[in-house]
Amino acid sequence: MSGKVAVAVRLAVDPAEAFRAFTEDVDLWWQRGIKFRFHPRKNGVMRFEPGEGGRLVEVYDEAAGDIYEVGRILVWQPGERLVFEWRAPNYREGQVTEVELRFQPVEGGTRILLEHRGWETLPGDHPARHGLADVPFLGTMGGWWQEQLAALKERL
């Protein structure tokens, strides 16, 4: 198994604005519900903490420290590239995948290329796979990200 999915979307904004919308407005476009949120019954707020070493988090009650850390930001290049770790709540210690986005200028806007890689690090019986073999599982994950990027495009 290659262990990665790749999807793309074209947006009618320049790369700097696409990056800004993806990171600063994440809670406005990131879909809600059990399919898309990490603890959907808690009604959290998605947030990127800018810069390398920052985090992608879902915040439920910041004062009480009730925050789910999806992962650390590995690369933060506004308007160009974003890379962050990805951990679902059912990942065991040390299990992590990685999401990379490239913001490419194209005529009339930006093409975002998203690659989510490292799936081969999760065993075949891992709950995140929902009992699916490699190819159907990766297809499902690609579709999931395509839905998320479509929500971003609709927001813009």
Give a written overview of the molecule.
This protein is α+β, with helices and mostly antiparallel strands and 156 residues long. It has 3 helices and 7 strands; from the N terminus they run βααββββββα. Strands 1-7-6-5-4-3-2 form a 7-stranded antiparallel beta sheet. The longest helix is centred in the C-terminal third of the chain and has 22 residues, at 134-155.
Residue runs with pLDDT of under 50 for 5 or more positions: none
> Structural class of the secondary structure composition?
alpha+beta
| Record field, number of beta strands | 7
What is the residue-mean pLDDT, rounded to a whole number? 93
Instruction: Provide the gyration radius in Å.
Output: 15 Å
Biggest sheet statistics = 7 strands, antiparallel
SSE ordering: EHHEEEEEEH
Relative strand content = 35-45%
Shape: globular
Euclidean distance between termini CA atoms:
35 Å
| Separate helix tally | 3
Adjacency order of strands in the biggest sheet: 1-7-6-5-4-3-2
Share of helical residues: 10-25%
Lay out the secondary structure.
Elements: E1 4-11, H1 15-24, H2 26-29, E2 45-48, E3 55-61, E4 66-77, E5 81-86, E6 97-106, E7 109-117, H3 134-155
